[in-house]
Amino acid sequence: MVDTTSTTTPEQPASARISGKVAVITGGASGMGRATVERFVHEGASVVVGDLNAETGQQVLDWAAAAGCGDRVRFTRTDVSVEEDVAALVDLAVGSFGRLDIMFNNAGIGGAFGPITEIDVDDWDRTFAILVRSVFLGTKHAAKVLIDQGSGGSIINTASIAGLGGGAGPQAYSAAKSAVENLSVATALELAPHRIRVNSICPGIIFTPLMHLGNEAQAEEVIAELQPWPDRGEGSDIAAMALFLASDESSFVTGQAHVVDGGLLAAGPRIHGRLHASRNLHRMAGIAFGSTGQTASVRRL
Fold first, then answer.
1. Of 202, 272, 264, 204, which is closest to residue 229 (Cα–Cα)?
2. What is the mean pLDDT of residues 175-193?
3. 202: how many CB neighbours lie within 10 A of its CB?
4. Assign residue 6 a region: left if phi > 0, alpha if psi is -120 to 50, beta otherwise?
5. How far apart are CA 279 and CA 241, in angstroms?
6. pTM of full prediction above 0.85
7. What CATH number does domain 22-300 carry, 3.40.50.2000, 3.40.50.720, 3.30.565.10, 3.40.50.300?
8. Which of 63, 97, 128, 173 is catalytic?
Protein backbone atom coordinates (compact mmCIF):
# COMPACT_ATOMS: atom_id res chain seq x y z
CA MET A 1 0.00 0.00 0.00
CA VAL A 2 1.31 3.44 -0.92
CA ASP A 3 1.67 5.86 1.98
CA THR A 4 -0.23 8.98 0.91
CA THR A 5 0.70 11.13 3.91
CA SER A 6 3.52 12.84 2.04
CA THR A 7 3.12 16.51 1.21
CA THR A 8 6.17 16.77 -1.03
CA THR A 9 6.63 16.04 -4.70
CA PRO A 10 9.71 14.55 -6.36
CA GLU A 11 10.13 17.11 -9.12
CA GLN A 12 13.59 18.63 -8.90
CA PRO A 13 13.56 22.44 -8.60
CA ALA A 14 15.86 24.52 -10.75
CA SER A 15 17.77 25.62 -7.65
CA ALA A 16 18.34 22.10 -6.27
CA ARG A 17 21.29 22.29 -3.87
CA ILE A 18 22.24 18.63 -3.55
CA SER A 19 21.38 17.42 -7.02
CA GLY A 20 23.41 14.34 -7.91
CA LYS A 21 24.65 13.78 -4.35
CA VAL A 22 24.22 10.50 -2.49
CA ALA A 23 22.92 10.42 1.09
CA VAL A 24 22.42 7.79 3.77
CA ILE A 25 19.66 8.58 6.29
CA THR A 26 19.12 6.39 9.34
CA GLY A 27 15.70 6.39 10.94
CA GLY A 28 14.51 7.57 7.54
CA ALA A 29 11.22 5.69 7.44
CA SER A 30 9.20 8.00 9.70
CA GLY A 31 9.07 11.40 11.34
CA MET A 32 11.98 13.77 10.84
CA GLY A 33 13.93 11.17 8.90
CA ARG A 34 11.11 10.53 6.45
CA ALA A 35 10.64 14.27 5.90
CA THR A 36 14.35 14.56 5.15
CA VAL A 37 14.29 11.64 2.72
CA GLU A 38 11.50 13.31 0.78
CA ARG A 39 13.22 16.72 0.81
CA PHE A 40 16.55 15.29 -0.34
CA VAL A 41 14.92 13.34 -3.16
CA HIS A 42 12.97 16.47 -4.12
CA GLU A 43 16.30 18.30 -4.32
CA GLY A 44 17.75 15.72 -6.71
CA ALA A 45 19.73 13.47 -4.38
CA SER A 46 19.81 9.68 -4.29
CA VAL A 47 19.00 8.34 -0.82
CA VAL A 48 19.60 5.10 1.04
CA VAL A 49 17.25 4.69 4.00
CA GLY A 50 18.12 2.58 7.01
CA ASP A 51 15.43 1.85 9.57
CA LEU A 52 14.54 -0.97 11.95
CA ASN A 53 10.87 -0.82 10.95
CA ALA A 54 10.53 -2.76 7.70
CA GLU A 55 6.85 -1.84 7.31
CA THR A 56 7.43 1.90 7.26
CA GLY A 57 10.56 1.33 5.19
CA GLN A 58 8.41 -0.31 2.52
CA GLN A 59 6.10 2.69 2.65
CA VAL A 60 9.05 4.89 1.70
CA LEU A 61 9.80 2.63 -1.27
CA ASP A 62 6.13 2.69 -2.28
CA TRP A 63 6.10 6.50 -2.09
CA ALA A 64 9.24 6.72 -4.23
CA ALA A 65 7.86 4.32 -6.83
CA ALA A 66 4.53 6.16 -7.05
CA ALA A 67 6.36 9.48 -7.33
CA GLY A 68 8.52 8.24 -10.19
CA CYS A 69 11.82 8.40 -8.32
CA GLY A 70 12.18 4.79 -7.19
CA ASP A 71 15.49 4.52 -9.01
CA ARG A 72 16.97 7.03 -6.54
CA VAL A 73 15.76 5.44 -3.28
CA ARG A 74 16.89 2.29 -1.52
CA PHE A 75 15.85 0.80 1.82
CA THR A 76 17.40 -1.83 4.05
CA ARG A 77 16.30 -2.91 7.50
CA THR A 78 19.00 -1.66 9.86
CA ASP A 79 19.77 -1.95 13.54
CA VAL A 80 21.93 1.14 13.93
CA SER A 81 23.55 -0.24 17.09
CA VAL A 82 25.05 -3.16 15.12
CA GLU A 83 28.26 -2.39 13.25
CA GLU A 84 27.68 -4.92 10.48
CA ASP A 85 24.29 -3.33 9.72
CA VAL A 86 25.68 0.20 9.56
CA ALA A 87 28.63 -0.87 7.41
CA ALA A 88 26.23 -2.64 5.05
CA LEU A 89 24.10 0.50 4.83
CA VAL A 90 27.05 2.60 3.71
CA ASP A 91 28.15 -0.15 1.31
CA LEU A 92 24.65 -0.18 -0.20
CA ALA A 93 24.93 3.52 -0.99
CA VAL A 94 28.29 3.11 -2.71
CA GLY A 95 27.23 -0.07 -4.49
CA SER A 96 23.93 1.39 -5.70
CA PHE A 97 24.98 4.93 -6.59
CA GLY A 98 28.77 4.83 -6.87
CA ARG A 99 29.68 7.16 -4.01
CA LEU A 100 28.65 8.79 -0.73
CA ASP A 101 28.36 12.52 0.01
CA ILE A 102 26.07 12.86 3.03
CA MET A 103 25.60 10.77 6.17
CA PHE A 104 22.63 11.72 8.36
CA ASN A 105 22.80 9.79 11.65
CA ASN A 106 19.22 10.42 12.67
CA ALA A 107 17.78 7.17 14.08
CA GLY A 108 16.65 7.30 17.68
CA ILE A 109 14.24 6.20 20.38
CA GLY A 110 12.77 7.74 23.52
CA GLY A 111 14.84 5.29 25.54
CA ALA A 112 15.00 4.46 29.22
CA PHE A 113 12.78 6.41 31.59
CA GLY A 114 11.70 6.47 35.22
CA PRO A 115 13.31 7.58 38.50
CA ILE A 116 17.10 7.18 38.41
CA THR A 117 16.81 4.65 41.23
CA GLU A 118 14.53 2.45 39.13
CA ILE A 119 16.07 2.50 35.64
CA ASP A 120 17.22 -0.92 34.49
CA VAL A 121 20.88 -0.98 33.46
CA ASP A 122 20.10 -2.93 30.30
CA ASP A 123 17.57 -0.28 29.27
CA TRP A 124 20.18 2.42 29.94
CA ASP A 125 22.77 0.58 27.83
CA ARG A 126 20.29 -0.04 25.01
CA THR A 127 19.42 3.65 24.97
CA PHE A 128 23.06 4.61 24.56
CA ALA A 129 23.60 1.91 21.95
CA ILE A 130 20.84 3.27 19.73
CA LEU A 131 21.43 6.97 20.35
CA VAL A 132 25.23 7.21 20.67
CA ARG A 133 26.92 4.04 19.39
CA SER A 134 24.87 4.45 16.21
CA VAL A 135 26.33 7.91 15.60
CA PHE A 136 29.85 6.59 16.24
CA LEU A 137 29.28 3.73 13.78
CA GLY A 138 27.68 5.92 11.13
CA THR A 139 30.48 8.46 11.41
CA LYS A 140 33.16 5.77 11.37
CA HIS A 141 31.99 4.02 8.23
CA ALA A 142 30.92 7.14 6.36
CA ALA A 143 34.24 8.85 7.13
CA LYS A 144 36.19 5.92 5.70
CA VAL A 145 34.41 6.31 2.36
CA LEU A 146 34.53 10.10 2.35
CA ILE A 147 38.24 10.18 3.13
CA ASP A 148 39.00 7.66 0.39
CA GLN A 149 36.95 9.63 -2.14
CA GLY A 150 38.96 12.73 -1.33
CA SER A 151 36.21 15.21 -2.18
CA GLY A 152 34.90 16.08 1.28
CA GLY A 153 31.35 15.60 2.46
CA SER A 154 28.88 16.23 5.24
CA ILE A 155 28.03 14.20 8.34
CA ILE A 156 24.91 15.33 10.22
CA ASN A 157 23.89 13.96 13.61
CA THR A 158 20.54 14.33 15.33
CA ALA A 159 21.12 15.55 18.88
CA SER A 160 18.46 17.42 20.90
CA ILE A 161 17.91 20.46 23.06
CA ALA A 162 17.63 17.82 25.80
CA GLY A 163 21.39 17.41 25.49
CA LEU A 164 22.08 21.12 25.95
CA GLY A 165 20.61 21.55 29.43
CA GLY A 166 18.29 20.11 32.03
CA GLY A 167 14.53 19.84 31.96
CA ALA A 168 14.00 18.82 28.33
CA GLY A 169 14.05 15.04 28.54
CA PRO A 170 14.60 11.90 30.62
CA GLN A 171 18.05 11.30 32.13
CA ALA A 172 19.30 8.63 29.71
CA TYR A 173 17.99 10.43 26.62
CA SER A 174 19.43 13.77 27.71
CA ALA A 175 22.83 12.29 28.55
CA ALA A 176 22.97 10.39 25.27
CA LYS A 177 22.07 13.43 23.20
CA SER A 178 24.71 15.45 25.02
CA ALA A 179 27.20 12.77 24.02
CA VAL A 180 26.07 13.04 20.39
CA GLU A 181 26.67 16.78 20.40
CA ASN A 182 30.13 16.40 21.93
CA LEU A 183 31.06 13.57 19.56
CA SER A 184 30.02 15.79 16.66
CA VAL A 185 32.41 18.52 17.81
CA ALA A 186 35.29 16.10 18.37
CA THR A 187 34.94 14.43 14.98
CA ALA A 188 34.47 17.79 13.25
CA LEU A 189 37.97 18.73 14.39
CA GLU A 190 39.41 15.39 13.35
CA LEU A 191 37.83 15.34 9.88
CA ALA A 192 38.22 19.03 8.99
CA PRO A 193 41.56 18.46 7.17
CA HIS A 194 39.64 16.16 4.81
CA ARG A 195 37.00 18.85 4.19
CA ILE A 196 34.41 16.65 5.87
CA ARG A 197 31.96 18.77 7.85
CA VAL A 198 30.33 17.36 10.99
CA ASN A 199 27.40 19.14 12.59
CA SER A 200 24.52 18.26 14.88
CA ILE A 201 20.88 19.30 14.76
CA CYS A 202 19.16 19.88 18.09
CA PRO A 203 15.38 19.68 17.62
CA GLY A 204 12.91 20.96 20.16
CA ILE A 205 9.34 19.64 20.19
CA ILE A 206 8.77 18.34 16.67
CA PHE A 207 5.23 17.23 15.84
CA THR A 208 5.75 13.62 14.80
CA PRO A 209 3.98 10.37 15.78
CA LEU A 210 6.80 9.73 18.24
CA MET A 211 5.96 13.01 19.96
CA HIS A 212 2.16 13.09 20.04
CA LEU A 213 1.50 9.31 20.24
CA GLY A 214 -1.82 9.77 18.50
CA ASN A 215 -3.11 12.44 20.91
CA GLU A 216 -2.57 15.43 18.65
CA ALA A 217 -4.94 17.87 20.35
CA GLN A 218 -3.38 17.41 23.78
CA ALA A 219 0.11 17.67 22.33
CA GLU A 220 -0.74 20.96 20.63
CA GLU A 221 -2.01 22.37 23.93
CA VAL A 222 1.31 21.56 25.61
CA ILE A 223 3.27 23.07 22.72
CA ALA A 224 1.24 26.27 22.91
CA GLU A 225 1.98 26.51 26.61
CA LEU A 226 5.73 25.86 26.41
CA GLN A 227 6.98 27.14 23.06
CA PRO A 228 7.35 30.86 22.26
CA TRP A 229 6.95 30.44 18.49
CA PRO A 230 3.22 30.13 17.64
CA ASP A 231 3.60 27.46 14.94
CA ARG A 232 4.38 23.87 15.82
CA GLY A 233 7.64 22.31 14.71
CA GLU A 234 7.33 19.86 11.82
CA GLY A 235 9.62 17.23 10.38
CA SER A 236 10.05 19.53 7.39
CA ASP A 237 11.76 22.08 9.65
CA ILE A 238 14.45 19.55 10.52
CA ALA A 239 14.69 18.52 6.88
CA ALA A 240 15.33 22.13 5.90
CA MET A 241 18.22 22.40 8.35
CA ALA A 242 19.60 19.05 7.21
CA LEU A 243 19.44 20.26 3.61
CA PHE A 244 21.47 23.35 4.46
CA LEU A 245 24.09 21.27 6.27
CA ALA A 246 24.19 18.72 3.44
CA SER A 247 24.64 21.33 0.73
CA ASP A 248 27.66 23.34 -0.30
CA GLU A 249 25.95 26.42 1.17
CA SER A 250 27.31 25.26 4.54
CA SER A 251 30.83 24.67 3.20
CA PHE A 252 32.41 26.74 6.02
CA VAL A 253 30.19 25.39 8.81
CA THR A 254 31.41 22.54 10.98
CA GLY A 255 31.48 21.51 14.64
CA GLN A 256 28.26 23.33 15.45
CA ALA A 257 25.02 22.40 17.24
CA HIS A 258 22.13 23.89 15.27
CA VAL A 259 19.06 24.42 17.45
CA VAL A 260 15.69 24.12 15.69
CA ASP A 261 13.11 24.61 18.43
CA GLY A 262 10.89 27.66 17.99
CA GLY A 263 12.64 29.44 20.85
CA LEU A 264 12.00 26.67 23.37
CA LEU A 265 15.58 26.51 24.66
CA ALA A 266 15.73 30.29 24.93
CA ALA A 267 12.63 30.20 27.11
CA GLY A 268 14.16 27.64 29.47
CA PRO A 269 12.36 24.36 28.70
CA ARG A 270 10.48 22.51 31.41
CA ILE A 271 9.22 19.76 29.16
CA HIS A 272 9.95 16.53 30.96
CA GLY A 273 6.87 15.31 32.78
CA ARG A 274 4.53 17.77 31.05
CA LEU A 275 4.08 16.17 27.64
CA HIS A 276 1.30 13.59 27.43
CA ALA A 277 3.79 10.76 27.02
CA SER A 278 5.79 11.69 30.11
CA ARG A 279 3.37 13.05 32.71
CA ASN A 280 3.40 9.96 34.91
CA LEU A 281 6.97 8.82 34.39
CA HIS A 282 7.71 9.15 38.09
CA ARG A 283 5.27 6.27 38.57
CA MET A 284 6.78 4.10 35.84
CA ALA A 285 10.12 2.80 34.57
CA GLY A 286 11.15 1.05 31.38
CA ILE A 287 12.23 1.81 27.83
CA ALA A 288 10.39 3.26 24.83
CA PHE A 289 11.37 2.37 21.27
CA GLY A 290 9.51 5.04 19.33
CA SER A 291 8.57 4.18 15.74
CA THR A 292 10.91 1.19 15.39
CA GLY A 293 8.04 -1.27 15.60
CA GLN A 294 9.29 -2.66 18.90
CA THR A 295 6.96 -2.70 21.90
CA ALA A 296 7.81 -0.52 24.88
CA SER A 297 8.65 -2.18 28.18
CA VAL A 298 6.93 -0.52 31.13
CA ARG A 299 6.94 -1.30 34.83
CA ARG A 300 4.57 0.48 37.18
CA LEU A 301 6.28 1.49 40.41
1. 264
2. 98
3. 25
4. beta
5. 30
6. yes
7. 3.40.50.720
8. 173
